[in-house]
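protien #1 (seq + structre)
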Amino acid sequence: MEDEPTFPAFPYEPYSIQIDFMKALYRSLSKGGVSMLESPTGTGKTLSIICSAVQWLVDRKHRLKSEANHAQTPRGGNGSDDEPEWMKNFVANKDAAVEDKMEKKPMFGKGKPDKGRNQGSCRNLLSPNFVEEGIHEKKDSENLRENNGVELNDEEFFMEEYESGEEEDVGAGKSKRKAGGVCINSSSDEGEEDYNEDDEEELKIYFCSRTHSQLSQFVKELRKTVFGYEMKVVSLGSRKIFCINEEVLKLGSSTYINERCLELQENKKKEVSKLKNLGSGGRIRRTKASSGCPMLRNQKLQKQFRSEISQEGALDIEDLVHLGRRMGTCPYYGSRSIIPAAEIVVLPYQSLLSKSSRESLGLNLKNNIVIIDEAHNLADSLISMYDAKITSSQLEHVNSHIKQYLERFRNFLGPGNRRYIQTLLVITRAFLQILFNGKDTSLVDHGHDAEIAFGATNALDSSMAINEFLFSLNIDNINLVKLLHYIKESNIIHKVSGYGNKVANLQKVSALIDSRESSEEGSILSGFRAFVDLLLSLTNNDGDGRIIISREKPTSSGQEGGYLKYVMLTGEKIFSEIVDQAHAVILAGGTLQPIEETKERLFPQLTPDRFHFFSCSHIIPPESILPVSLSHGPSGQSFDFSYSSRSSTIMMEELGLLLCNLVTVVPEGIVVFFSSFDYEGQVYDSWKASGILERIMKKKCIFREPRKNTDVEFVLKEYKETIDKLSNTNQKEDHVPQNGAILLAVVGGKISEGINFSDGMGRCIVMVGLPYPSPSDIELLERVKHIEGLGVSNSSRSTKFSVGNEQHYSGDVQAGFAILRSCKHRGKEYYENLCMKAVNQSIGRAIRHINDYAAILLVDARYASDPSKRSLSHPTNKLPQWIKDRLVPVTGKYGEAHRLLHQFFKLNKKRGCQ
């Protein structure tokens, strides 16, 4: 039996629930498998994760060293009998390397990622991190100009002749190249050691969360411990966050910044340095490359950057950017180069959960630890990374540029290239036809099915399975796997988009290209990536997802363009790749329940001995929180914020009267959560017209959550400063008209997800109604239908689950409600869980430490029913246990709730003064 773990790195005296949490995490890491650990927000969850997980890592490394030393002795073996199997294998395979690593640790940050490790993935072509290797044209340029009449400056857009292999051999397609024509890029200075994975790869922890701010918070907590200075830590992020090249940053959007960065990598100045014999007459051309980006030209600065990080301890993204600016070298590529030697890698969701991103970054999960924080919506976040979308305007651009390229270079293309490019044209035309000629039933010959798909319902939005989509467009005979292989091998998208850019610039017909002031979809290369993304999605299994066909529709602001979108529905296979590689996967969060849904969607085949769950209560005493479910307003009107009633003037005014009363009893800050920005705007306008807004503002200033995430920080700063200023004034003067502020926020917005309203910023949280997602969202309905069918055999699904045939959907809310009502099992529960998870995330923003206190008002009659008559699916049964245990249902007059609030704040004010 192992000794009880201790956590000496915890910087304070830990509470009992923190010790319980750390021990549960430590045991989970020792056993391996998947664990879900739930600890309410405000209980020091992040610090507990750090002190437990990193302590386990340190203990494991010591044990590994001991095992390695033991293996060198005459009586040494492969470890004790009770050693986990994965550890025996680890020691057996790497004992010598471990011993060497322990005696002489490699300098942190010296290695470089293995660029060639994952070149086999088609999806790498589409990743923003993908850097296309240059394919050198080997044809004689003089002969080309003389014999074919091609201008010198068009030569770069020529394609090498492409030979397609047999159908069963995807890898057989290749460009023809002469011996000695292979080009290897080397960014290293002469004498720099090549990266050797076996020498420098460390046993490590990957910690990921949803936002960069949450990752920065993790690093700040890490610095509070000795681990922040003893462990080798690296933070990863997006190019947009890391970039210090002002010319690139001016482009604004992430898409343009990614593309420009990659263009600069491709535009390297190459200088032939030597030719090496490969044997058998082959030669390899080695070139020394300096990057086109000024921040990457000096490799010695990159070395110094890595050296600086090794001396500074744990740095967050902001620190790395500051260091990069000070040294004049790229922090994005500098941080990536440190991954192999790091022991703790801090990175966003996308970088770890997306297979293409993992491969691009060279992340090795084998036998390592993966910790996913804020995992309450993990299943939906995971599958959304594998969605693919192309708009009608992007399709038109792709189609026209392929056509333009084919017309210009047709005479210089070999049969292989010509055939594949014509195939791309066939597909783009088919996609455009389904978007623009939806009523043209001649497109397909499916009789009644075609009538449903393309005209009878006049549907603006519809959905299809992959095979149905391919058959309906008559492109089911195209081998998409081989086509994708051709796209990857031939560099076709860069050739075509490059030529298209050149023509557009020369003719001055594309202001989009010149000014780069268009939307995300404006770039030619972006359109090609979106197109290839969709092609790749079509190679998934038929039941893994659905194709959404959304045609152009009129809106209040004009015409909304159409699009094709692949919506991934199953995350099991995606997540299993992570679970199968990693030693342990930890899902952490403040509100993870109900856990059955997550298990069903992500790891249904996981055996019970490989799954662990732990949940702890809150650290605050019962008197520090007052959750109240409120059924009636001050005038006696029953609160009903269901879709059909919430927009009535009576309901909005009753909510306004409630706020008029709350501002007289609640000190400092009140945060009010609405179901959507549209509804918040509707209520605000109603209050303004009726004079309620003016009444509220006599007591508290009003702030509103902006739609743009970039403006949120400014609004929050003003909100906090107003509360602090008025609170200090109130303490000096007895009669001050205003006593704080109100923030009108939106469920699912930035404020509800990652902002902490500790102390005066959130003395009262008001949740208006039940924020169910809109039933007009066709993607949501597809997920609901898929989840409703989980566990149902294919033979019985069609008869048992009739909504599965409701494929062609007009976007009408009532039609959406009809589909939702037909769901009786998992789909219904999933829809309810989406709502209550959003509620729990929002109301959990208030209590942030043991001395904090806040009231929580759940404003809707559906929250406040008699506890004895509640079903298992009742909304309050899905609240966190620490809130549910203290919930006070007020089913009668509002006066009772007002009295409770008055007593609550009076009591806590006294406690604070003591």
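ok now protien #2
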Amino acid sequence: MVFPIKWSKPPMARCQHLRRLLSSAAGAARPITAWRVPRTLDSASADSARIRELARLGRVREAREVFDAMPRRDIIAWNSMIFAYCNSGMPDDARSLAASISGGNLRTGTILLSGYSRLGRVRDARRVFDEMPARNTVAWNAMVNCYVKNGDINLARRLFDVMPSRDVTSWNTMLTGYCHSQQMVDARNLFEQMPERNLVSWTLMISGYVLIEQHGKAWGIFCTMHREGMPPDQPNLVSVLSAASHLENFDIVQSLQVLALKTGFERDVVIGTALLNAYTRDMSMLDTAMKFFDGMKERNEYTWSTMITALAHGGRIDSASDLYQRDPQKSIHSRTAMVTGLARCGRISDARVLFEQIPEPNVVSWNAMITGYMHNEMVDEAEELFNRMPFRNTISWAGMIAGYAQNGRSEEALVSLQTLHRNGMLPSLSSLTSSFFACSNIEALEAGKQMHSLALKVGCQFNTYVCNALITMYGKCRNMDFVRQVFNRMTAKDTVSWNSFITALVQNNLLEEARDTFDNMPSRDIVSWTTIISAYAQNEQEIEAVEIFRSLMHAHEVPNPPILTILLGVGGSLGAPKLGQQIHTVAIKLGMDSGLIVANALMSMYFKYGCADSLKVFDSMEERDIFTWNTIITGHAQHGLGREAIRVYQQMESAGVLPNEVTFVGLLHACSHSGLVDEGRQFFNSMSSDYGLTPLLEHYACMVDLLGRAGDVQGAEQFIYDMPIEPDTVIWSALLGACKIHKNVEIGRRAAEKLFAIEPSNTGNYVMLSNIYSSLGMWDEVAKVRKLMKEQGVNKEPGCSWMQIKNKMYSFVTGDEDHEQIEDIRATLQELYNSLKATGYVPDTEFVLHDIDEEQKESSLLYHSEKLAVAYGLLVTPKGMPIQIMKNLRICGDCHTFIKFVSHVTKREIDIRDGNRFHHLRNGICSCGDFW
């Protein structure tokens, strides 16, 4: 609803009447004799004002010099200097100064209390409050405000309830606490109980609803205020404009613009800037915002900087630069906005040139340039600039600490915090939370405990932001006892707190407790859903992840790109094309299918289905990153399309995209599965010679696989011995696999012995060695391997295949006897077996690991899981319909041959994704070329 506008400017007659009353009163009053104020007092007053001005500029040393030079000081001068220390984050110095005048007056105590409060030092603030010989309502309000600012709403309410007297500020302070901690139910109850409300009260409620993104309720409060006849003031209009900017209702913003005109704010530059902010909220309306900006009758430095910032954030840095050139003043705010914009879009050199042109950059400008360097991962340059700063505030230190932590230099972040502390400054909340993040990065538990102790010293251990960072840090450091302590002792928990706790539980493999916590959350946001869905997906409980996603959709929550990406990965892992297609449809409806992250996930998923739709997604992408190219190269490799993978790589080079380590893993994998030995060698050498990339274990493993598959088993073994790094299990396993293909007993035995020593519980290694022995009829050796497996407590993983028909998954295990249609499946298999033998199929019994007669071997081979799946697919699907099967292990040679014959006889397209790659079988021919 857009409300009707009734307010107007104050009537001129009323103003003239007020002037007459004041004039009459002045005429009737007796003349007042002027006091002769000594010159020293005039000087003291000027000096006090100078101290306060220097304090606001952060120049505390100069303020102290003025203070020390004063010949006489009154209480105003003392309080001014105490304020200067507190304003510069030095309340201990302020307190020492206050002690020189025996604590000063009520104003002195309130200044000190507020100084400690600003730094989150709640205990010190309370000590000052308790030591005050007398307290007025202002002091009580300051202490309540201290608890509020530091997130301890319960203590704030207790103190509020015992106040000897309250004014509207008292109520508004408590209201602020509830609104800032997002407890809007309590805020609304308190608001309704207020004996008196002013515009601040209404503005707080509007801002509170904006904070929890209930912009409709914020608008509703404003409309109620309007109905009660309360005209808005500047802060009130600014708050409701913030709400209106999120309502996606252009009419509301326009009606507020009209209201601003009718209530005398036509030339109010703050309101104009707020309206400009509302227009710039939607990047698609930047042209409208620019039109409004050009029509503004009054502009100040913030108006210019707002529009410059909006254009820069909208990716229109050239337009931002043009507007900056139009700015007649080119204030420090506009210059700083332009520096920030240039840095954000990667034009850091231009940003530095502009920064150097600022005649007297203030601390905000210095901080913006340092942040720009950190944003562009230029930590050394940020450090050099930081060391040159003439003055640093807590934001400067916080920016450096955060920059170090976010750029992988966590140790330096912690050293910076120590330096700050040694310089006599206590860290800000931002510095502390960044330090906890740094500890999380390097899992530095002991350093984290020291930071926690510092938080206790500062008195902000109950601050919500600090507690959330502590939960994350202790969770990463695998200390769940401390996680639970911090979480349980929190006086105010927001949604981030719950999400952090759930994440810590997931990281420590406590999935069941994480789910219970998720189910009992008082409210959830999209991060909550993302965390729990991701947890189940990562723990290979894909079905449960899908069910939670369905609950999300049922709750009418809108999934974000990360959730869609997770579900697309789940669909690919399960081999469930119907699920993948459904998620794709959801992405299209939400307009997220063209986003880079989702498009990459779609392409990866369709490759896992063996589906050509992956190429359609790739061709339709307007934006591609290195992950896009790596995905399509790896996808071609999985399907045995080595030449196509190389072609895509050449296309990537032509597009000017530099390959990374993952690119070369995909290329080498593609060459390995296509027998392209010479090409593989060229790519391996190109890594270091052309791109300066150091080959990793994965690349060496691909080379061993490449050489071994091509039949050069001895060369593969020698390659391992010539490696500059220690081979891992993947490399030895690749060599053992090659020995299995080419029946090389001696090298296979050596590779297996290495693997048994490194990972004695891995079943696959024993099975591969046993396969080598059984293929050569070495049954005594097979028995020894089987005995060794028994001694190690190792059991062979059963072969399992599964397929999706319509919307249901069907699974089969080797020798399956439990399937409801097993008799029909076996009959179909036997019929196929007989017909295929007549067309030339000969069972390859070397894949049987038992010393039994040939007939038994053939019978054993017949009931492998992939054969059962094929037979079931033939039974229940229409004639000519393609069959898609997933298998947990590498397909055996006999099954591969058998299914080739089936594809020829039945004229079915059969796709099998085994543990290594895809096999596309068409008319008796496999895409792998019998090379896998």
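The chain has 51 helices and six strands.
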